[in-house]
């Protein structure tokens, strides 16, 4: 068996922080690397006030942590607005979820969506850059490019629908 190196992100749970930085970059359009690194640091310092940093690095951030960073760091520092558009007890069909995402992206301003997804072997925060009728187009820290909508669920993961979207952990970000 050939030994392969771990990739960044394989042993850490920082995808939530990366999703915030990447969503902000998409909206601003011209964020330089130094500014992105500063935002990353600001996010880490903010979450460190809430949790032990070692735990964040290994276990990642919760939806409440993401929401707190968006409200207390991103929205205060940049001309960006964020919303949590879905109630915790979302009981509507998944097609309604994607229809609401499509309506959101059809509006004028620069927009991104941060979502939490689970797969059989991992859980992950990612950024939806746009969507087509069949695919989520991602701007992702793990270099995923797309997810087929037909393979998504909001209920139970199975072989045909291996991507579980946590609807209440959806965040809309847009230019003010």
> What's the rounded overall pLDDT mean?
93
DSSP summary, beta strand count: 8
User: Please, what is the CATH homologous superfamily?
Assistant: Cysteine proteinases
Number of helices: 5
Contiguous runs where pLDDT drops below 50 for at least 5 residues: none
Strand content: 15-25%
Domains counted in the coordinates: how many?
1
Described by strand count, sense and barrel closure, the largest sheet is: 8 strands, mixed
CATH domain class: Alpha Beta
Gross CATH architecture = Alpha-Beta Complex
Helix/strand order, N-terminal first: HHHHEHEEEEEEE
> What is the CA–CA distance across the termini?
52 Å
Quick structural summary:
With 176 residues, the chain is α+β, with helices and mostly antiparallel strands. 36% of the residues lie in helices and 22% in strands. Strands 1, 2, 3, 4, 5, 6, 7 and 8 form an 8-stranded mixed β-sheet that branches.
């Amino acid at each position: 068996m050939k030994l392969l190196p771990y990739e960044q992100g394989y042993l850490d749970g920082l995808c939530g922080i990366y999703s915030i930085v990447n969503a902000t970059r998409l909206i601003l359009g011209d964020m330089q690397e130094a500014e992105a690194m500063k935002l990353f640091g600001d996010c880490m310092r903010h979450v460190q006030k809430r949790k032990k940093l070692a735990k964040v690095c290994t276990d990642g951030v919760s939806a409440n942590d993401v929401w707190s960073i968006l409200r207390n760091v991103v929205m205060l520092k940049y001309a960006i607005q964020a919303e949590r558009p879905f109630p915790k007890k979302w009981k509507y069909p998944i097609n309604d979820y994607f229809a609401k995402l499509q309506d959101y992206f059809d509006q004028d301003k620069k927009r991104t969506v941060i979502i939490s997804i689970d797969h059989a072997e991992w859980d992950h925060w990612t950024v939806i850059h746009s969507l087509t009728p069949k695919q989520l187009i991602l701007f992702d820290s793990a270099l995923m490019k797309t997810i087929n909508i037909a393979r998504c669920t909001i209920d139970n993961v199975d072989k045909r629908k291996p991507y579980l979207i946590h609807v209440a952990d959806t965040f809309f970000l847009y230019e003010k």
